[in-house]
């Protein structure tokens, strides 16, 4: 890398970006916005949103930005927090394998606030830039960041949101360097919060932090212009400074990360680390007639560390079950569809808990990952040992919805129509196809 610092280089790359010139990037951005909207409407009745709405009502503020599916507006910073929470409430929102986290639930709420106030025409391009930043941060931070317990959606999302909103707002080089620093100093989020209401709030707080960072920069607030650099900067503190120096800015936008590897659009409302197992157990149930009644035990085989996000082995509620491969498999064995109603705050029934106790995680470092695996190096094998002595297994390297096994645009539209009345869904789809952000904001309230 040149003598140019990481902060200076990132700010310059963001400012010089021209994603609107890429047909592929803009197409994928529209798909991402569709999926973000579908996931948000699916989560609009989560109990946590009412708690947060009560908090902002007590605070007051100028109601300028729609809160998705709530029939109300909020002040820009409040809306970023609220809409980030709603989008991530069910863990039904997209994932990016380079991020090891959820880009759209952070980026879109910050950009919606910007669009509602003045800069809607740059929303899709800014979204592409935000995904690029967040993916590159994820690649550059190194694997130990996540493994130590940080939640990348929160820690990386604040900086990415600041860059996206900074692009939308047309910040100067100096302003954007400072905004990156303001966001970096607010970066936070711990994986110990998985399975609680705080986990989706990480997305909202990151969106809010990124938007606040831009506002601070625009107000000429004082701060460092080198927050990513050196041993005491962001990468030195949180991750791998040497790796960042070689990867953060290399081949910027060639291709855009929203295009390749692309976003992973979910078909299940739970952690993506359990999607491989979900596809595998559904295949066994369908093709081998496996059920809780005829199965003695289940082994779930991961590469070492492949289940790091699946923090719950004995969840007590469906909310905790979003991060439990045992719960996902037990549901399928009892003939349940893996749909939203099973992943709420209600207690898990006793028969499901009993079946979870028959499921064991196994780690095998001798199994070769597939070249097309998503995320890279990952797989899951589900082995079912039946009461008649037979054993059946299914392996999944690239689950449905992930890049390489992706959902079509029509699939995503159907996901939206499952959560929104048909006429409203069609209005939202049309506004996104036309890139009419004014209408889009009007339809999502």
Brief overview:
With 445 residues, the protein is an alpha+beta fold. It has helices at residues 6-16, 23-42, 47-59, 76-88, 104-119, 123-141, 143-147, 152-155, 157-169, 173-184, 198-218, 234-238, 241-247, 258-262, 275-288, 318-321, 325-333, 350-356, 409-417, 422-433, 437-444; strands spanning 65-67, 72-74, 295-302, 359-363, 380-386, 391-396. The protein has 2 domains: 6-267 and 410-444, 2-methylcitrate dehydratase PrpD (Orthogonal Bundle); 272-396, 60s Ribosomal Protein L30, Chain: A (2-Layer Sandwich).
Description:
By secondary structure, this protein is α+β, with helices and mostly antiparallel strands. It folds into two domains: 6-267 and 410-444, Orthogonal Bundle (2-methylcitrate dehydratase PrpD), CATH 1.10.4100; 272-396, 60s Ribosomal Protein L30, Chain: A, CATH 3.30.1330. Helices cover 51% and strands 7% of the residues. The strands form two sheets. Strands 4-3-5-6 form a four-stranded mixed beta sheet. It has a two-stranded antiparallel sheet with strand order 1-2. Strand 5 and strand 6 form a beta hairpin. Helix 9 runs antiparallel to helix 10 (173-184), helix 10 packs antiparallel against helix 11 and helix 15 packs parallel to helix 17. The mean pLDDT is 96.
Mean pLDDT: 96
CATH class of the largest domain: Mainly Alpha
Main sheet attributes: strand count, strand direction, barrel closure: 4 strands, mixed
C-alpha geometry: globular
The CATH superfamily of the largest domain is identified as: 2-methylcitrate dehydratase PrpD
Question: In percent, how much strand structure appears in the residues?
Answer: 5-15%
Cα gyration radius (Å): 21 Å
Please write the string of helix (H) and strand (E) elements.
HHHEEHHHHHHHHHHHHEHHHEEEHHH
According to CATH, the fold-level topology of the largest domain is 2-methylcitrate dehydratase PrpD
Protein name: MmgE/PrpD family protein
Domain MmgE/PrpD C-terminal: 268-421
Domain MmgE/PrpD N-terminal: 15-240
GO molecular function: lyase activity
């Amino acid at each position: 890398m040149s003598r140019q610092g990481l902060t200076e280089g990132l700010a310059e790359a963001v400012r010089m970006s021209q994603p609107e010139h890429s047909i592929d990037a803009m197409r994928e951005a529209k798909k991402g916005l569709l999926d973000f909207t579908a996931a948000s409407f699916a989560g609009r009745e989560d109990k946590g949103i009412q708690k947060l709405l009560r908090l902002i009502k007590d605070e007051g503020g100028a109601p300028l930005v729609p809160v998705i599916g709530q029939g109300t507006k909020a002040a820009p910073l409040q809306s970023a927090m609220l809409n980030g929470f709603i989008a991530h409430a069910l863990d039904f929102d997209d994932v990016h394998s380079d991020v090891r986290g959820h880009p759209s639930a952070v980026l879109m709420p910050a950009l919606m606030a910007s669009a509602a106030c003045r800069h809607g025409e740059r929303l899709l391009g800014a979204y592409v830039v935000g995904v690029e930043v967040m993916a590159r941060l994820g690649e550059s931070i190194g694997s130990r960041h996540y493994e130590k317990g940080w939640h990348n959606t929160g820690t990386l999302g604040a900086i990415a949101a600041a860059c996206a909103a900074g692009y939308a707002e047309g910040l100067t080089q100096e302003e954007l360097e400072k905004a990156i620093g303001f966001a970096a100093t607010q970066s936070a989020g711990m994986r110990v919060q998985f399975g609680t209401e705080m986990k989706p709030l990480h997305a909202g707080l990151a969106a809010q932090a990124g938007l606040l960072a831009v506002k601070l920069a625009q107000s000429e607030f004082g701060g460092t212009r080198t927050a990513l650099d050196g041993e005491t900067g962001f990468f030195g503190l949180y991750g791998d400074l040497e790796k960042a120096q070689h990867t953060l800015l290399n081949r910027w936008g060639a291709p855009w990360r929203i295009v390749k590897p692309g976003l992973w659009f979910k078909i299940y409302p739970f952690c993506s680390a359990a999607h491989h197992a979900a596809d595998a157990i559904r295949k066994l149930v369908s093709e081998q007639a496996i059920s809780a009644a005829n199965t003695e035990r289940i082994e779930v085989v991961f590469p070492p560390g492949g289940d790091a996000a699946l923090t719950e082995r004995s969840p007590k509620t469906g909310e905790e079950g979003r991060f439990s491969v045992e719960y996902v498999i037990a549901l399928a064995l009892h003939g349940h569809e893996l749909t939203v109603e099973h992943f709420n705050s209600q207690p898990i029934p006793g028969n499901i808990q009993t079946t979870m106790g028959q499921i064991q995680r196994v780690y095998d470092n001798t199994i070769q990952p597939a070249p097309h695996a998503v995320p890279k190096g990952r797989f899951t094998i589900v082995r079912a040992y039946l009461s008649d002595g037979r054993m059946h297994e299914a392996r999944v390297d690239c689950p449905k919805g992930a890049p390489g096994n992706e959902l079509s645009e029509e699939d995503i539209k159907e996901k939206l129509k499952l959560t929104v009345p048909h006429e409203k869904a069609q209005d939202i789809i049309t506004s996104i196809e036309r890139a009419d952000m004014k209408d889009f904001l009007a339809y999502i309230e």
